[in-house]
Amino acid sequence: MGWNFGTNDMAATNFQRIKGFWRNEGGSGTIEFVLWLPAFVFIFILISDVSFIFYGKSQTLRILQDANRALSVGAIESEIDVENRVLEQMQLMGHTGVVDAVINSTTGVVTTTVRIPVNELTSVGSIPSLSNFDVAIISSHFLEQ
Hints:
The chain is of the alpha+beta class. The protein has one domain. The protein is 57% helix and 17% strand. It is built from 4 helices and 3 strands. It has a 3-stranded antiparallel β-sheet. It is rod-shaped and about 100 Å long. It starts with 6 loop residues before the first helix and ends with a strand. The mean pLDDT is 85.
C-alpha cells in the first residue's frame, strides 16, 4: 500500500461537493425571508403613518368640537377666542395649522376649520408624495344663546 495522492479522485470529490451545493435547498427559506423582510417592514411603517394621520385628525376634531361647544355655551365670546383656543390646544399636541372660525348669524351655527400639513401628522414620512397635502378638519355646532 503506497501513498495515493489521487488527483483525479480529489477533483471528482470537489466536483461532487460543488454539484451538491447547487442542488441543496436548505437555505432557501432564509433567502426568501431576507428578500421579503423589507417589503413587510415598509408595509408596517406605511400602516403606522396612516394610523398616525387618522389619530391626529381625530384629536384635532375633538379640539374643534370642544372649542365650538365652549363658544356655544358662552365660555368663549368670539371667533378669535375660538381660533386662539384651538391653536393653543394644537400646540400642546405639537401641531401647527391654519384655523378659521366663522359664526353664521342667520343659522346660528359656528363652523371651525383647521388645515394641518400631512407631514406633521406622520411618524416616519413613508409616503413622500403626501407631504404636499393638507388635512382639513371641519366642525360645526349650533349656538345655544
